[in-house]
Design brief:
Strand content: 15-25%
Distance between the termini: 70 Å
Number of domains: 2
Radius of gyration: 34 Å
Shape: elongated
CATH architecture of the largest domain: 3-Layer(aba) Sandwich
Largest sheet: 6 strands, mixed
Helix content: 25-40%
Structural class: alpha+beta
Number of helices: 11
CATH topology of the largest domain: Rossmann fold
CATH class of the largest domain: Alpha Beta
CATH superfamily of the largest domain: SGNH hydrolase
Number of strands: 20
Amino acid sequence: MKRSRIVLFLFGVIAILALLCAVFPEDGFLGLRFPQLGEILAGAEPQKGPSPEELIEQRRQAVLAAERDQYRSFFAEDPARFSLPDDDVRFFDSLFEALDRAGTEPLRILHYGDSQIEEDRITGTIRERLQERFGGSGPGMMPAREYATPRVGGGSSAGLRRYFIYGDASRRAGIRQYGPYADFVRLDTTATLSYYPVRSRDREQSTFERVTLVAGNLRSPLSVRCRGEARTVEPGEPISLVRFELPDSSTRVSLTVSGYADLYGVLLDGKTGVRMDNMAMRGSSGAIFTAMDPGQLRSFYREENVRLILLQYGGNSVPYLKTDKATATFLESVRRQLRLLKELAPEAKIVFVGPSDMSTVVGGKRQTYPRLPALVDSLRASATACGAAYWDIYGAMGGLNSMVQWVNARPALAGSDYVHFTLAGSRKMGDMFCDAFFLYYDYYRWRKENES
């Protein structure tokens, strides 16, 4: 067939199809539908909506928003959350930055508290988990006297008299220099301080790589010997830190000290990572720092790079706060301590850890102390107003009348005094604190990765 006839045939077919498009009903006929001429001439409409790249970014932002909302839901609603000044979720950022550098720039955390933390309870769990995550080893500060935790024990070869600023007034020294522990022994002879693991199965949690004697109020040169090395410290400094490096993973050490001085304690630490001290004060309300020498505290906090201070007080005061006036006096004392510590340790974050639930007999039944819930709210408000965070043990453990359940648990999580946690309960409370703290850290890391 000739080319001209093929062309004419094709144009004829197109013309017939165009005519059908023009005359065929738009809604079809007998179930059949033929495209309209306008549809054919218009061609394919351009695709509306986001491009694939835009769609992917939309999906990513939706996922991030969901993750952010999950974090913020915990921060706003969970009883185990931290209450932060101005609800600022960036409150801990500088601490988290320091923790991320702890492998090269070690930092110290101080846990001051009453008898609820004696024998390294709660502190030991927090220390263990922080060191697992950010590095470090050692039990931290040990007193320069006979003392034991479930992991590490220690003692002195001499019967040195002990002084402390809290509790029994007969133990006051008539001075303000009590050291960072608010507790010291007075050296006036030669004594050997020895530290050792209490239980072999806890060996991994009892190792350290350096030992530091913390002393002050020197009234003569102080001689310190450790493993064949000797140091001599002259009087004059508000606080003296005498350090010796040890073989890795040491579990035992002895220091022989001679002279006239006050010995505040011995630090058993790793060379890097997190170092954490348990500073338990039986019977204390926490109103001690304003009675201590600020120069000593400031010097120790700066020298040891203290970046977090936990203050766990209030339990000893609860039974005696029976009037609004007594409560107001206690709260003002708390605020005074917080304001001072912020001044003395400007690089540190401060967390006030409130009292747990505590039971008394009301109407023949064990119930929460009547004024405790309101006190918790007031402590939270006081702490955050002073620029500190607040962690609510009372709420975290279940709130009103929860102590009865902790006592009745099997194994028991609290003692028969309906005040103190058992070792098992202390571990759970330390874990609860760390679980919440790490969630804030994870959110900090999430923000660094996802916020511009």
